[in-house]
Every structure is written in structure tokens, then in C-alpha cells.
Amino acid sequence: MKTSETCKTGGSETGGLPAEERVKRGNDKRIFVNRSLTLENIKCYGFDMDYTLAIYKSPEFETMGFELIRDRLVSVGYPHELLRYTYDPSFPTRGLVIDTLFGNLLKVDSNGNILVCSHGFYFLKSYDIKKFYPNKFIQRHDTDRFHNLSTLFNLSETYLYACLMDFFTRCSRYENLTTGFQHGDLLMTFRSMFQDVRDAMDHIHNNGVLKDRTIKNLEKFVEKIPNLPYFLTRIKDVAKVFLATNSDYMYTEAIMRYLLETCVTTSGPRKPWRSYFDLIVVDTKKPQFFGEGTVLRQVDTDTGKLRIGTYTGDLQHGTVYSGGSSDVICDLLKVQGKDILYVGDHIFGDILKSKKRQGWKTFLVVPELTKELEVWEKKRGLFEELKRLDVFLAELHKNVDSTDPEILDIQYRMKVLTYRMDVAYSQMGSLLRSGSRQTLFSSQLLRYADLYSTSCINLVHYPLNYLFLAPPVLMAHEMTSSDNTTDMEAVI
Amino acid sequence: MKTSETCKTGGSETGGLPAEERVKRGNDKRIFVNRSLTLENIKCYGFDMDYTLAIYKSPEFETMGFELIRDRLVSVGYPHELLRYTYDPSFPTRGLVIDTLFGNLLKVDSNGNILVCSHGFYFLKSYDIKKFYPNKFIQRHDTDRFHNLSTLFNLSETYLYACLMDFFTRCSRYENLTTGFQHGDLLMTFRSMFQDVRDAMDHIHNNGVLKDRTIKNLEKFVEKIPNLPYFLTRIKDVAKVFLATNSDYMYTEAIMRYLLETCVTTSGPRKPWRSYFDLIVVDTKKPQFFGEGTVLRQVDTDTGKLRIGTYTGDLQHGTVYSGGSSDVICDLLKVQGKDILYVGDHIFGDILKSKKRQGWKTFLVVPELTKELEVWEKKRGLFEELKRLDVFLAELHKNVDSTDPEILDIQYRMKVLTYRMDVAYSQMGSLLRSGSRQTLFSSQLLRYADLYSTSCINLVHYPLNYLFLAPPVLMAHEMTSSDNTTDMEAVI
Amino acid sequence: MKTSETCKTGGSETGGLPAEERVKRGNDKRIFVNRSLTLENIKCYGFDMDYTLAIYKSPEFETMGFELIRDRLVSVGYPHELLRYTYDPSFPTRGLVIDTLFGNLLKVDSNGNILVCSHGFYFLKSYDIKKFYPNKFIQRHDTDRFHNLSTLFNLSETYLYACLMDFFTRCSRYENLTTGFQHGDLLMTFRSMFQDVRDAMDHIHNNGVLKDRTIKNLEKFVEKIPNLPYFLTRIKDVAKVFLATNSDYMYTEAIMRYLLETCVTTSGPRKPWRSYFDLIVVDTKKPQFFGEGTVLRQVDTDTGKLRIGTYTGDLQHGTVYSGGSSDVICDLLKVQGKDILYVGDHIFGDILKSKKRQGWKTFLVVPELTKELEVWEKKRGLFEELKRLDVFLAELHKNVDSTDPEILDIQYRMKVLTYRMDVAYSQMGSLLRSGSRQTLFSSQLLRYADLYSTSCINLVHYPLNYLFLAPPVLMAHEMTSSDNTTDMEAVI
Amino acid sequence: MKTSETCKTGGSETGGLPAEERVKRGNDKRIFVNRSLTLENIKCYGFDMDYTLAIYKSPEFETMGFELIRDRLVSVGYPHELLRYTYDPSFPTRGLVIDTLFGNLLKVDSNGNILVCSHGFYFLKSYDIKKFYPNKFIQRHDTDRFHNLSTLFNLSETYLYACLMDFFTRCSRYENLTTGFQHGDLLMTFRSMFQDVRDAMDHIHNNGVLKDRTIKNLEKFVEKIPNLPYFLTRIKDVAKVFLATNSDYMYTEAIMRYLLETCVTTSGPRKPWRSYFDLIVVDTKKPQFFGEGTVLRQVDTDTGKLRIGTYTGDLQHGTVYSGGSSDVICDLLKVQGKDILYVGDHIFGDILKSKKRQGWKTFLVVPELTKELEVWEKKRGLFEELKRLDVFLAELHKNVDSTDPEILDIQYRMKVLTYRMDVAYSQMGSLLRSGSRQTLFSSQLLRYADLYSTSCINLVHYPLNYLFLAPPVLMAHEMTSSDNTTDMEAVI
């Protein structure tokens, strides 16, 4: 009897975990809280599929994606030498911004200040960054020029763009210009190269090759969460459950069947995957789904095709729909926005939009959190040292000015510490911070995700009437007002 | 003969304050920090005028504004009974949102969740709120329906709108409808009443009556910051200084002369007000000023009129300009965005826009902070009690469900505590919080203002190479990761 | 008994005109037809006021407008020498396009091809035009750059803009640049000068000076149509009648009282002007009025102020409304769009919009038509000669190529003929054509106006069941198909 | 062995046609003129490919298109009964407007007045039309609701939409609603059915099946213009020639090779098709091509793939490009907009846009013109009768009112005549008129096409220095002014 294939079907007590596991449970099993939330009030759980219920194995999945778009570029005319590049998971970080004018990858904070900047695999020094961005700042709203790479699907693309910059910069056949490369009569702007990568991405998504390969080798690419059937059964006992995915029906069917019907269960017969949900919606076109939406149609689950016309009847169990909108879901399930906890991995399409436009409760899945927690644990000393130096620097400033050698020395040491901390995560650093500064991704996570965790399955470790309690947020003046001894700002 | 009229012209030591004042200095003299900032790096200080350099006396100024728009409404046909209403500073709070569909004043958090809701002077209970807003949530981006009242100039308008609701609701001549009042053939929608108030506001601003009355009685309406000349002189020694106001030149001239030329100075002769600035820009049309801007023209300071054509020469000292944009200012002063500390009172027009679009450093003046600090000091006990009950509630949830009488009792006590805390600020509560939850205004302050304080003059208490140090922000998973004992989320 | 003051109160027979007048009636008493229309089907007549019922005397009115904006420019800093310019009615033509980039006045056809181009009072030769517009074509949809001057109110502005170009081009203090004038540090772009003129226009409209002067001297500025009371009474007998003007109530009251209450009538007592209409709407904000419109409010005719709230009752006779929309009018009068004949002078705001968005029948008042008809009558010979030369040229082309001296000679003669025809109208030529080519204005008139005439009063000459018959339009292939002898295209 | 496959390679004299043909040449060989144009001034000829150089055989091509989208609909779930419908060329007319709200096909004039209205194959009477459109008028700018079917590619779609209405209206399983059909829980709105047809259209275009079948059976679907090689050679001698098509390269290659390389020529060897053009641009994305355009890339003519990067060198003969814009074409060919005569079949994408945005000279190919001319010739009597009745009606109106039986009788006779004329063209009537009123298509043709003809090849019948002379357009007041005898409007 294969154990890793055994589906957990529940323990006797509420928590669902034997006592000895309680101690072992590490931080990657925990759920973190930005805004308090009582599970007992949740009348409806919604799930995205990709990277939420279906965890794609890393780096196998990104590697496949990278190779497909790399090969596509070569097939449309890019040099064969590109085939020598292979995916390196230690380079890219999610949440970067691409500057299509100068071909740089940027890590920025929520206000558009640049934290890290690379061109290909070369990391620009502060001095060089200022040549491109005199204010070390970008106008993020210029979406014509700057593109966010905020999903896990963007990782292969991020890396490939760096490969292209690397290759053409080094290749002697091409002349380096400010906004691209020249080869004889041919001008390749960074912008057109970005467009080519985007087109290649679209190509492999639209022609189905990425999905086909995934489905043909599910064991290789999709992680099977052992106790997922138990987890879904457990929450379906107390609340409504829906699946809302941008994927099409055939792919959803293949993935969900693999996740929910192919494991051995210790109790009772296997159930069809659709029976785990009150409502299944495919082709959701998020984020549009959280606004005006599209027409809701029924899916013929035998053929995978859409039924013609729009379904106007009551919700029928096991029925699969295509399209629709978040409003339609609330109507069909008879729930209000704030009764819903929506679990997804896409900070913009899943979390920001459902929160901002519909007032849903949100749970962000952040697979990178396992590594983030691990590094934070190990390198926290560097962060504490940074904090100490910061305070020391503030003290120094009371007496000397910034040209003082001691100040310059501390600033240098802080840069080194920041760099050492960053590379402990990956070459482009942490998803969430650069030294003591937080990334755009991190500030969006804070604003829009009520809860976050490495995996949605971690909900299984909490009783379903649990109150997730956020520590109260104090503003600067509230923190310091009653507390004169640690008054950092007070000079005199 | 030192009176309140004497201008402070500087002390000998860096801090600018005699030793005995250091002890006395309370929190309302302090500057609070959201993001670290080294004054030494600031090469340029910019100031808004209204509510920044020119503090309008409260409630005298709001009272005048209220009466002018109230009288205007009566003069365009509103019932004379409205004249009985007088401005009550204890009611309105800045930063409310008006719902023009249902005529309610709303206090919301950054995601659009409703914290407080009033109709006229009647405060809706949670149950009533849900009748209007089933999800206790508004779609803030529907700016056609919802209007932010985020400036101090909006206070009189906020109060007047409540008065209108109050009057017509009680007046027996009018029938109460869901979206307005009916009187015979006449339908007054809440929307059209809002439009009438807006038009009245525009009227008193455009016909100059508000300005005229202010200028005719400056002593009554404008606070004279005693050491403003000293302060401006001091920063002009180390950096460039500009004034950027949406007001016109004649009004600016009157106000600034009053502030800078009519006080007795202990050292040296009075200087003309314009000599305190490297650049003076009026009619700035912020927030447009931080984007595409308008044509930059010179003002003839003798006549107050614009010169024709666009000035293309170098910056000339004492020259006054009209229009332009933040880019033009940077060019004229030869500074980069992040070299500028911009001090203003308008969270949207001054702070959010300068930060988000131009990467400027920002200092938000929050006059209400004096009171906020005072109440916080006195009522902090309530907040601590709220926190305790929150933790207690979380503990209870582990064992019992939410229908348990103990839980209901605690929830009731928390509501009472929140209410008691709120009314300690004003009837609509604090500018920054409602119980333990933060307002939209508060979250914008956190995101966009690097520094904030009761008054800009508080900069005088810090040496000009001061490093304002923000406490590092930890995310939920970083806080708990190394610290197992206070693990609030861990159940089992 | 003053004859010119005597109001026509009706004749006995249907046509309303004594027999002897029938003979004398010239073309300026006729109504011209673009699309057939049966008056008998018209259930509702709508009138604009300015330039439709109230004919402003030319050039007195334009002269006043010109002087007011000229003086305003000088008062905001433009050189005093400008005061020497006086309005010359022989220069401007309505319907020109201003190019704010190059400061030129353009006459264009419906596709944007340039017919005439002037810079100040200097007319550019074909060769010069191509320097600015290589394709002799403008992209009319670039409304940021090109502005239509299509109303009679624009005439003073048109002339003033030409004066400015003239003055600064000649004035030795200013250097001529491609896009403006330079004087020391001062750059005056053509665009900013256009903006200044626009601002001055807005100023004299908003501060009421233009209206005040008009009202104070109605005899000087407003033509009294002798039989207007008779005309309105006559159509009100058979249909509903409304007035829809963008003017405010006080101005409308003054003008309409002058037009309808101050003349001696031969039959019966004078009636109040409002009794001539079923519905009076002021502040209509056309063209917005024909789309989403604004809130409909009642006007208190004693005070001229708006009543608060929105009127929801039935239509009451003599009631004056403010705002609203064309849909609201149809509801109040219980008529459909195609039952309405709307009479106005503004090709865009009155005619194009009411036709295109609401399907109304339209009648364009074209005061210039008197002169256009007169010149056409006199100079028709030139046009016939142009036609002859055109045919001759086509013949020549069959045998020789375009470098042939005979062809060049004919082309030169055609240019001369076109010029002679143009200047017979005014310096900028006819409102409707340049030689054999039609203007943008002319093509809009054709497309959107069902009827057009010198004055709306000409309706009085037609019985109210008249069928205005448009000659059928044949396309080129329909004209030639059955008619082989005059086949102009067939070469061989 | 001269067959229809023999390419005409030119005659000796200019006209290119032997003398005896001159006489025989009928109207379908003629080019009609809306605005005068001298061929000698044309320095550059541009051609669209589909329906311009490549004439698709009718009804074979539309039949194939119809069957493909019909089958697609059935394959996505529409009832199998639909397969019984076959394409009927006698029903649809190009240029109709679909009302997706009510499911009607509308024929409208340029102002949106309804001329003909059908629901399925049922033609609505005037009385019924008013139930849907009380004003017999549509707001054409509401493009969300109304869709133009203005290309020849839309014919199959037009017919299929009528078939769907017909089927579901008759089918007893479905209930007829105002905006769709209901079947149990399933609501099929007219809008969603329109969307399904559109999606099916996109499907057969995107998956290439339409192109594949065309290429596999070129003889069946594409007409070979006999003297096309001669024609292109002839104009290439005197001007530049380009091809600009929205089709991709592989399809263009197949079609153009068939048209230009597979015929037997009488003189000299066959030339490769690309040698007939100075510039070949595929994937043009018209109408976007006439505005901002897309990136210009080179096509590798061996593989059909795009070269990476953007071509920046000089124009090379025989090179094929993808994308670009009309501006880029002018640069590459060194011509101005008005030197270009652009020949296309798409009134909006080819003609309106090139004329309005770029000032090009335009030649609209209207294949239906052969039939239009034929019917016009035959049925002109009906039109003359209509005209006579119109005049008679106008006369009658002078004496009697519209309830007079004689008037009613004439109106009835005019309706019958209009109907008889319409059906002589097809069930939906003429492309260009309904009785004496012109269609939207007709008025766009008049405004934007300088020349029009049944086929572009008709240019071969005119010498290349020909002057196409348009008859001068007179306005109503110009026509009548000197011509008192036929004064139709003058009553008295």
C-alpha cells in the first residue's frame, strides 16, 4: 500500500492532527494573518486551481515552460545559440518589473523606487542605475513601458528575457544600443524582443502544448497534496465550496481527476472529483470575472463543449459552468462577498481584484514562503545587524555629517549586509524584501491578502471555527506616544 | 516686549531650541516617520500654502465656510429653516466618503469596508447598515457615486450635507424616499442635493467671497506661526525652497505677507516675503501639476496678472510663476524628485500624487494630530482592553462556537469600547481609526507620507542633518517565525 | 403707426402672404431642401434662440465681441498696439479650422483637404502650403491641434486670431519662429495665443459683459423679425412648440420679451412671450443635451433662479425648465424624435447632434445665405466657366500629358477663376465652397440639415401641410448608365 | 490555344483595347467618379488582395463560408436541424446592420433611419418596425448593440444569422421572447447567438480551414482576371505599385502565384509574382494600419516566417514585409498620401480610413455593381415613376391634407414601387438604395471613394494620364437660384 498515495480521510478530533504532529509542525504549515478573520463566519470557500489546488513542481514545470518558449523563439528566427541556455531556478524571483525601453529587470517597492536592477545576468551598481533612472524611481502607471511579472507562470519568461539580454550583449555580431541591438539592417529593440517573448508565451498557451505535456506526465509536473480529498470534504461539511479557474474544462478535468480520484483512500470508495464542489466554473477570465464578467454557459461534461444559450435555472450539483462573474457566483450560491474566503495564488487577478472590487475575504498561496521562512530563520542575524546599524547611523547623524568616514563605512557595511541577505534567497533576492525594504509584491500581499501561507492545505491544521487574529497595527505616533524611553525620533 | 507676534529668529545651537524646552516638548512638536529619511540628503524643500504654511483657525474658518455655503443654498431656493443650523466642530471628521445614492456619510477602511455610517446626525446600527450595503462594503472606484471628503476645506461641506439630511428627514412637508425627498411635484434626490452643495462650494470659491473675508480679517482666520521666518531662513541656508500653491497670486500675496512680513523680528530688518523662496508657483492645479501640468507663465507681481507667453529663461530670484508642472520645477531648480521634501496637507493632491508619480519625499501636515495624540494618550486604556478582548475571543473560539453567550458578550463589550473610543475624538470618530481598525485616510498616510506631524514648523526642532528612522516593518511570518512563545495563530 | 414695428398677425389665406408679395419674394425668402419632409407630419417645432429667433445684427454684434476680447487680451498683458485693430467683416468666414501648431487659419473640405490657408492676413500660395502640410491635408480628428470655428459667435475670435498673427509677425520686437514668436526670454507659441483668445472668449461670456451690453442696447444688436409673433402663433395652432437654448433664463427673458412683447400688433392685445411656447428650456448644454443631458430643474420665473429638486409632474404651460435632455423633452411633450422639426444655427450642437443621436428633423438657419445667393447669382458665370475648363482639361488629358503648356495655361486660368469667385464672397471666401470644391461646412449641411434657409421666419411663406421635396440623388453610375451620349468618363 | 487562361499582355495603343471592343464595352467595364482625379498625378498604386486582386467566386465562396460556420455551430451544440439550411445568394445584401438586442437585420440610411427590417426571413411591415423602433431610427454609435456587416466576408454570416432566427422562431421546442428564445432552463439571447456566430467566424478564420480549402481548390473559388499581369506591368511602368493585405504570407503567396504565375502569356516568360510589386506588405491589420500601425518586420519568403527585429534599411525589391503602417509605406516608397491611389474592397478598413486619416486617393471595388447596373437599367422605369409620384404628391399637398384618399393611394403605390424595385436586386434589396432613398453604404461610398467600379481591372481601359472628371456638386440653393421655372419648393 503506497503511503504517499494514501488520501488522508480525517482524524477523530477537531484539529485533525495527531498530538505528536502538533509539536513537529513547522512554520511552513502555518497560516499568517494580515487582518483578523473568523473561519466560523465563512459560509463559502472558493479556490483557484493552478498553483492553488494544483501545485506545479518546481523547477520541472518552469523548465518545461522555459524550453518551450525558447524553442519557439528559435523557430521564429532567433539564433540557434539560444538553445544552449537552460533554466536556472536560482536566478529569477517572482514580482519583478520589466522595463521594455532599456531591457532591464527591476525589483521595486510599492512606490516605484528601484531596489535591484539587472540587465541580463549583470547586476547594475547604484551609479549605473542612476544613468538609466536618475531618480532611482519608475512611474509604474506607465504600463505601456513597464510590465509586472507577478505570477508563477511568469518565471520562465523572466529568465528567458534575461537570457536574451545576456546573449545579444555578448554576441559580437550585434552592436549594443541604448534601446536594443543592431545587426546590419536589422534593429532589435528591447521592446520588440519583449513582444516576441510575450508572443511565444501566448503561442505555447494557445496551441495547448504546455497543457498537453503537463497532462501526459502529471506525476512529473503536478504535486499531489495527500490530504486534499479529506480537506475538501471537511470544509464542504460546514460551508459551500467552489472552484473558479481561468483554465478550460478539459484541462481542469484532467488535473482535478488526478488530484482527487487517483489516490487510495483509507475510508470508503473514491468519489468523482466534481462531487467535492458545489459549483465549478471554468474559463473565468479573472480579473474581468470580478468586474463585468462574461456570459455564463453550461459545460457539457461529456464533450467538454459549451452548451449553447445561457443557463437560467437553479444551481445543480456537479454542474460545470463556463464564464460568468463573481456576482453570478454569489447569486447562484446565495452568499454575500464577505462570507466568501477566496484562496488563490495570483496577487492581482485573484486577491487584489476580489478584495477591492467585491470585498471578499482572501487567502494568498505563496509557494515561495517555505524558502522565505527558511532563509529568514537562518539569516535573521543579518537583518538584526542591519537594524542595529540603522540606529547607529541615526545616532551618528546627530553629531557628524554624511561625509564623515564613519558614516560612509557604515553605509558600505549595510550594502554588503543587504547583498548577503538578498543572495541567500536567490540571485534576484527575496520575493518580499531587499534588506530592510519591502517589495511591491510584499506591500500588495499586506494590503489585499487577509491570510497567506505556503499552501492552501494548511487550513487543515486549524479548526473550522478558528479566529485568525492579526496583531493590531499602530501608527508611528501611536507607538511612540506613551513610550518615552525608546523614542527614536526625539533629538533633544 | 516678546509677544506672540514676535518672530523667532533662531537660536545659536543646532537644535534651535533652548535646553529647557527640550524637556517640555510634547508629542505635538514631534515628527513621525513612516519611511526613513535623511534630512541631509534633501536639497530642496517645497511647501503648499493653505493649511501648511497658513494654518486656518478652527473652528472659525470652517464656521465661515459653512455659513457661506448654507446661505448660498438658501439664496438658490433651499428652505429658510436651514439658517438655524450652525457649524458644530464636534461632528465631522475629515476623510469621510459621501454616498450620493443613499445620502449617507461613510467612514471606510482602505479596502472599502464600512466602519461608521451616518444619515444626517443619525448613526446607523450594523443591522441598518446591511440594509443599504448588504456586504458592509462599497466599491470605492465607483467615483460617480462615492466622493471623498479628504481635505480640511471639505469639513464645512461634510457638516452641511449632514444638516440637509437632518432637516429634510424631520420636516413634515417632505416625504422620505430611498434615494431622496419628495414634496408635491418636486423630487430632491440625495445626488442632486450633493450637487447643489458642490455648486455652492464652487460658487463661494470662484466668486472670491471666502478669500475676501479671510483677507479682510486675517487675525481672525489665519494662525501666525511665530518662528516661520526663522524656520524658512534656516532651511534656505542649506537647501532650495519653493512654494507651490493652487491659490492665485493676489490671495497668496496677502496671506504670505501677513505670515512673513507683519511680525516683529528680534534680529535685523523685515524681509519681503518672496525673498524667503527660490521659486514661487501659484495656480498650480495640483494634482494635475504632478502629471502633465499646464503652461508656465510669469506673474506680474505689481498687477497680479499673468505675463503673456511662456517664460523660457533661467530661474530669477523672487520671480513668481503661474501653472507649470512638477517636472518644470525640477528643471528650474535643477533637482531630482528624490532630493525634494514636499510638505503639504492634501493627502491626495499633495502627497499621494507627488510620491506616486514623481518619487518625491513627502511630509504630511495633519492638524488633527494634536487632538488625536491627546485622546490616544487618555483613552489608550480602551484600546489595550480591546486588544485583550480580541485575544480572549480568539482563545474562546478554540473551544466554543460563535453562538456561545460568552462570545456574544465579549463582542458586545468590544462594540461598546469601540464606540467609547470613537466618540472621545468626535461624533464621527477619529481621523485615523475606529476602534482597532484603521481608516482609508490612515492607510493612505502610511503608504504615501514619509513623515507626518501636526505642523510643518516642527521641522525646526530637528537638526538639518537629522536621520528620521522608521522602525523596520516585519511581515506576519517574519514576526512569528523565531518567536514560538507568542505564536497567536498556532492552535494545536 | 410704425410699420417696421408692426407685428404681422396673419393673413386670411393659407399661404399667409398677399398675392403681390408672391412675385417679389426672392431666393432669400425660400427654404432649401436636402431631404424631403412633409410639414404636415411635424407634430412639434423646436427652436434655438441665439441666431435663430434672435438674429444678432452684423457687423455690430461681432464688432462688440471683437473689441471685448481684444481689450481683455490687452488687459492681461498683450501689447497696447493691438487696440488699433478694428473688426473687418470682409475678412472672416465661418467654418474655418485653426491650426494651433502653426497659427494658420484653414478652409478645408470634408475629408481634410486644404482649400485655403492664411497666416494673419497673408494668404499662402500652394507652394507655401505644402511646406507646412506636405499632403495639403490635415488629420481633422486631431482635435488637440485643430479647432473648428463653426459658429457665428466664433467670427470675432477668428478675426482676432488673424490680427494677432499679423501684429506679431510684423512687429520688430518679436522674432518669428515656426511655432510662435520669441521676445527675449519670452516664448509665445501659437498654441498659447490660441489658448489666450479662448480664455478671453470664456471670460467675456462668463462675466456676463457681452450679455449685459447686448441687453442694454437691444435695438442696436438684435434684429426684430416683424412677423415672429404671427409665425409662432400660426405653428402653435397646429403643433407643439418649444424653445431650447444654452443661454440662461435672465438673458433669454430679456431677449424674448424684446422680440415678442415690444411690437405693436394689429390684432388683439400683446401676449406674454412665454405663452408662445408649450415648453421653454434654458441652460440646455447642447450638444450634451442630445446625449446624457443634465438634471432637469424648474426655473422660478420671478427670480430667475432654479428651484431646488427635480420637477417630476406633468408639463405645465408657461413653466420654464433648466437643463434636461432631448429625451426628457420628448417625454414631456409626448412626441417622437421624427415628429420634431428642430430649427437652429449651430451645425454641430444643434443640427448634427439632434439628427445623428436622436433622428430629429432639422432646419439649419444660415444667415450668410443671403449673401451667398447674391454672389452666386452674380458670379455664376465664373462657375460655369470653371466647369467648361474642367471638361476641356479632361479632353486635353486624353491626348497630351500634364506638362503640356496648354494644360498648364488652363490650370492657371482655373486658379484665377477660383480666386475671383472666392473674393466675391469675402477675403476667406464663401462659407460653402472654394471654386468648384465644397467646404466641410457645406458637406455637413448636406448630410445633417433636412432644410436650410436664411431665416427661420421663411417657414411663414409655406402652408403648414407643405411637402418639401428634395430632388432624388443619383449616384455616378446611375446618372451615366442610361445616358450614353454625355458619358464623360468613357474615353475610347 | 487562347483560352480564358491566357493572360492579356497588352496592346500597342494607349487605350489597351482594340477599337471594336470600345463600342461593346458596357457599364460594368467603366469606372465611376465621385471626385475628380488625374491618373497622371498618381505616383503610386496600392492594392488590397482579397476581393480586389483576388475575386472570390460567388456564390461558391460564400457557400463554403456559410457551411463552415453552420457546421461549427452544430459542433458546439446548436441543433442538427440547422444542417438543412443551405446558402441562398438571393437573400443577403452587404452593408446591413445587425441589432443584437432584437435579432433583426436592418438596412439603414446614413443618419440611422430604417429602410428595411427583417427577422429571419420575415420582413417587418412599417407598423411592426415601429413596435421595435418607435422612431424608425437607430443610434448607430451604440456599437455595443449594432454591428455593421459591411464586407463581402460578412455575407455568409448575415445569411446564417437569418437562418438561426428562422429556425428557432419556427421550432416548437423554443419559446419566442422579445430578446431571444427560451428552452427549459436555457435562455438563448439574440446577443449570445450573434456572439456564437462571430466566434464561429473567428474559428474558421483562425484555424485556417477557410484558407486551406480555398488554396486546395483555387480554380473553384478564385476568379482569374485574364489580363492582370498585363495590367500590373503597365502601371508599374509609370508608377510604384504595392500590395497591402491583412492576409498572412503563406496564403498571399498561394493566391498571388495562382493569379500571376499560372497563366499562359503570349509574350515572354512568366515572371515571379513578387516582381510585379515594388513593395509587398502582409499582416497589415487594417484599419489599424492607417493609424498607429504595428512593428514592421521582414518576412523570410522561404519559410514564410518573420525575421526577428525590425528592418531599418532601404527598400529592397521583392522583399516582403509584415505589419507596419501607412506612414511606413510612404517613407519606404518615398511618396506623399495624395500621390497614392489605393484600391480596395472594404469601405471602412480600406477606403474610409485611408481617406480620412491619410488623405489617400481611393478606388472602391464593388463587385455587386455589375448586378446593380443591370437592375437599374431594367427597372429605371420604376424609379422614374417614383419620382413622378413624388412631385405629384408634393402638388397634392398644396391643396389637400394627408388624410385625403388620393394621397393615401399615391403613398401606397410608392410603397409598392419601392418594393418591386428592391426585390429586383435581392430579397434584402440593393446595396445602394431602397426606392429613392440611399443606404448608409451608398453614402459612405459617396464620401470616401474617389472612384468606384465593378473591378480594379477596369483601370486597364483608361489611359494612364486620364482625368476622371466628377460632375460638379450643386447645393439645393445653387440649383434653384437661377432657374425659376422648375422651382419645386416655391408655393405661391
TrEMBL record, chains A, B, C, D:
<dbReference type="GO" id="GO:0046872">
    <property type="term" value="F:metal ion binding"/>
</dbReference>
<dbReference type="InterPro" id="IPR008380">
    <property type="entry name" value="HAD-SF_hydro_IG_5-nucl"/>
</dbReference>
<dbReference type="GO" id="GO:0046037">
    <property type="term" value="P:GMP metabolic process"/>
</dbReference>
<dbReference type="Pfam" id="PF05761">
    <property type="entry name" value="5_nucleotid"/>
</dbReference>
<feature type="binding site">
    <location>
        <position position="48"/>
    </location>
    <ligand>
        <name>Mg(2+)</name>
    </ligand>
</feature>
<feature type="compositionally biased region" description="Polar residues">
    <location>
        <begin position="1"/>
        <end position="11"/>
    </location>
</feature>
<feature type="region of interest" description="Disordered">
    <location>
        <begin position="1"/>
        <end position="20"/>
    </location>
</feature>
<protein>
    <recommendedName>
        <fullName>5'-nucleotidase, cytosolic II, like 1</fullName>
    </recommendedName>
</protein>
<comment type="similarity">
    <text>Belongs to the 5'(3')-deoxyribonucleotidase family.</text>
</comment>
<feature type="binding site">
    <location>
        <position position="345"/>
    </location>
    <ligand>
        <name>Mg(2+)</name>
    </ligand>
</feature>
<dbReference type="InterPro" id="IPR036412">
    <property type="entry name" value="HAD-like_sf"/>
</dbReference>
<feature type="binding site">
    <location>
        <position position="50"/>
    </location>
    <ligand>
        <name>GMP</name>
    </ligand>
</feature>
<feature type="active site" description="Nucleophile">
    <location>
        <position position="48"/>
    </location>
</feature>
<keyword id="KW-0479">Metal-binding</keyword>
<dbReference type="InterPro" id="IPR023214">
    <property type="entry name" value="HAD_sf"/>
</dbReference>
<dbReference type="GO" id="GO:0008253">
    <property type="term" value="F:5'-nucleotidase activity"/>
</dbReference>
<keyword id="KW-0460">Magnesium</keyword>
<dbReference type="InterPro" id="IPR016695">
    <property type="entry name" value="Pur_nucleotidase"/>
</dbReference>
<feature type="active site" description="Proton donor">
    <location>
        <position position="50"/>
    </location>
</feature>
<keyword id="KW-0378">Hydrolase</keyword>
